């Protein structure tokens, strides 16, 4: 009983303990859920109209697109391309779902038929699309190659997506019309004319220096026109560049090294003398060059036009065995030797039939001939052509896999030396007109006929020993020290002053966006962009970045958050607009005239005339485009004078001298049809952009580190 009494006495205390325990449990669960939400948000690249795009799915598509695009496309370029594709797909899918439209089996067959209508593998003997051949092709893919079948499924999806989009666009177009009322309005906008007299008091008549524009004026203008001045988050930086460039000493050392091959003597570090055969006395030029040059021997003959411009005359006129150099060309020092000379045409005309084989570069998937079988085919065709050359065009159409020349009867019209692959080139330029032969290249076997050659001229075979002009280790070490020292000093001192002291050029870059990748003057530099957007980074922060052949020392200058443009950033754009408004007010305040003549006298100008003004093209002869002034004119009666009008180029007073209404038509259907067509014409270009602007798009690429 005593225990129960004690429990009762402490009931309030126990309730508080239990409540705190429950609260702790709820808080723990809340934090747990918060972590889950954070984890989720880091895995969601975007949410578009309520649909999430996961990081994993997005990156898989980026990787696939990167493989397809090849090495020339940067990761950011590919990522942005995939982003736009995914945004478009999600936005359009929202529309399809709301309308309940889809591509069904029958339409899919029609779409494939249209898409594949010119593919030879799906055509019958009459040249018409054969659905049975398509079914057979798909069945064969499914049985023989899952990878190829998966590619086909992706192709079908892309065809279906295009068809679905076209269905949607057609639905929108079908709902557009031009009414008779719109047709009548269109006709009147074009046909109603007015003649006016006007006085223009040009804004340019008031000097800009007489108009005071304050920061608050610019701020007020921005706030009145918020939509025009909304900006994404951005950063401003400045940087200097330390380039690893060969010094004069480095260049002299490279030339000295080449002179060893030119003169034929070499002294090693121990002082022992070794003899190297001079380039001019070498017999095996290819081996000598390949052993001692940064670039391999090129056995092609070239005309004078194919030699470096600065030294073309000198090298072209050398005797066989003659050597010239060292000379500088395209980032290298070189010594060149004329290895051989011959006379060859500078252009030829040929026709050919290409027979591919399994493994050749031109071989399509359906090619089944082995190399030996293809050679037999080529030799057989050559025999037929030799007996009757008129069969050449017919055999081209039947056998040649070179689609680019089939329509021209296998012909490649006049083309210069070294246009074709080497084996093809050698046959056509070293043979003579009328020659027929079989030549093997990486593309297959070619049956070639030389149809014409220009007169032969001198060509030279030039062997060249090259050395790339690049900085020595001592030079690169010095550049690294200079960059590091500047970085250390800039963190504590004045960036601009230090740059001036070291005679370095400071380059500003403003308005960098979070997903940008390129820095002007430096190129693709995502690391610099990512650094500039680090959360805790303070203005004035300095960092060194490695770039190809050197370093960049960058300093963060400004951080601009998402929202309205700052007064400083908007000044260049807004200042002329505010100044124009103030000039208009100054003109209004000083004008008391009520007639055109009085206004012209007071402002020391003249009364001018303009005729046949219409609303469709609101331009006043001698004054420029003035929509508001023209609109006012159409609101006045004949003989009526306007009040002052603030136009684009000045303040105006106008008087309507003549009103000419448009000719009335019995029917405005033709004009209504034009209106309808105008509406339809803009669907393809403007519909998606309108949907995108109205969509709810949450872009988390920067937050999810997909950048």
UniProtKB/TrEMBL annotation:
Pfam families: Rotamase_3 (PF13616), SurA_N_2 (PF13623). Keywords: Cell inner membrane, Cell membrane, Chaperone, Isomerase, Membrane, Rotamase, Transmembrane, Transmembrane helix. Gene3D superfamilies: 3.10.50.40. Its main location: membrane. It comes from the Bacteria. It is a single-pass type II membrane protein. It is found in: Cell inner membrane. Residues 345-452 form the PpiC domain. Belongs to the PpiD chaperone family. This is Periplasmic chaperone PpiD. It comes from Flavivirga spongiicola.
């Amino acid at each position: 009983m005593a225990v129960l009494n004690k429990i009762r006495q402490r009931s309030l205390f126990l309730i508080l303990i239990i409540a705190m325990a429950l609260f702790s449990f709820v808080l723990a669960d809340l934090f747990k859920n918060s972590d889950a939400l954070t984890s989720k948000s880091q895995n969601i690249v975007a949410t578009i109209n309520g649909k999430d795009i996961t990081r994993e799915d997005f990156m898989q598509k980026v990787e696939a697109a990167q493989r397809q695009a090849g090495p020339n496309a940067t990761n950011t370029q590919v990522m942005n391309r995939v982003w736009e594709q995914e945004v478009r797909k999600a936005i359009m899918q929202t529309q399809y779902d709301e309308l309940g439209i889809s591509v069904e089996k029958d339409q899919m067959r029609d779409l494939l038929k249209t898409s594949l209508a010119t593919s030879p593998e799906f055509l019958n003997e009459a040249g018409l699309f054969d659905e049975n051949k398509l079914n057979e092709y798909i069945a064969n893919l499914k049985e023989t190659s899952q990878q190829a079948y998966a590619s086909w499924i992706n192709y079908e999806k892309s065809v279906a997506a295009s068809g679905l989009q076209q269905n949607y666009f057609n639905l929108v177009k079908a709902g557009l019309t031009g009414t008779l009322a719109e047709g009548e309005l269109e006709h009147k906008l074009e046909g109603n004319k007015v003649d006016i007299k006007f006085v223009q008091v040009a804004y340019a008549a008031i000097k800009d220096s007489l108009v005071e524009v304050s920061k608050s004026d610019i701020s007020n203008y921005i706030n009145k026109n918020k939509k025009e001045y909304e900006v994404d988050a951005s950063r401003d930086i400045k940087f200097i560049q330390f380039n690893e460039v060969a010094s004069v000493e480095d260049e002299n050392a490279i030339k000295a090294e080449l002179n060893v091959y030119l003169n034929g003597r070499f002294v090693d570090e121990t002082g022992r003398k070794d003899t190297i055969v001079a380039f001019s006395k070498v017999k095996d030029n290819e081996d000598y060059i390949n052993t001692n040059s940064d670039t391999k021997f090129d056995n092609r003959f070239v005309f004078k036009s194919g030699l470096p411009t600065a030294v073309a005359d000198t090298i072209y006129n050398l005797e066989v065995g003659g050597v010239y150099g060292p000379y500088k060309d395209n980032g290298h020092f070189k010594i060149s030797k004329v290895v051989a000379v011959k006379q060859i045409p500078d252009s030829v005309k040929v026709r050919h039939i290409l027979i591919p084989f399994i493994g050749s570069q031109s071989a399509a998937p359906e090619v089944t001939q082995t190399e030996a079988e293809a050679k037999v085919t080529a030799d057989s065709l050559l025999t037929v052509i030799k007996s009757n050359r008129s069969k050449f065009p017919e055999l081209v159409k039947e056998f040649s896999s070179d689609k680019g020349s089939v329509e021209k009867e296998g012909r490649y019209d006049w083309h210069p030396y070294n246009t074709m692959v080497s084996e093809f080139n050698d046959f056509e330029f070293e043979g003579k007109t009328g020659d027929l032969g079989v030549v093997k290249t990486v593309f297959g076997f070619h049956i070639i006929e030389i149809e014409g050659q220009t007169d032969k001229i001198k060509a030279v075979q030039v062997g060249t020993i090259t050395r790339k002009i690049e900085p020595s280790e001592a030079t690169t070490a010095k550049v690294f020290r200079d960059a590091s020292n500047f970085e250390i000093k800039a963190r504590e001192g004045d960036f601009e002053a230090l740059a001036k002291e070291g005679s370095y050029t400071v380059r500003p870059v403003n308005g960098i966006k979070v997903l940008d990748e390129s820095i002007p003057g430096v190129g693709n530099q995502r690391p610099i962009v990512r650094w500039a957007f680090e959360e805790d980074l303070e203005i004035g922060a300095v960092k060194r970045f490695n770039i190809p052949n050197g370093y960049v020392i960058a300093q963060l200058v400004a951080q601009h958050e998402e929202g309205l443009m700052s007064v400083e950033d908007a000044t260049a754009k807004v200042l002329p607009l505010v100044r124009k408004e103030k000039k208009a007010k100054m003109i209004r305040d000083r004008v008391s005239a009520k007639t055109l003549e009085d206004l012209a006298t007071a402002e020391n100008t003249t009364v001018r005339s303009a005729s046949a003004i219409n609303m469709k093209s609101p331009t006043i002869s001698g004054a420029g485009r003035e929509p508001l002034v023209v609109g006012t004119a159409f609101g006045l009666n004949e003989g009526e004078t306007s009040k002052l009008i603030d136009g684009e180029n000045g303040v105006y007073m106008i008087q309507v001298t003549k009103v000419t209404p448009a000719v009335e038509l019995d029917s405005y259907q033709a004009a209504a049809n034009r209106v309808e067509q105008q509406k339809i014409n803009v669907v393809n270009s403007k519909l998606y952009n309108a949907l995108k602007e109205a969509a709810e798009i949450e872009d988390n690429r920067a937050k999810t580190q997909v950048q």
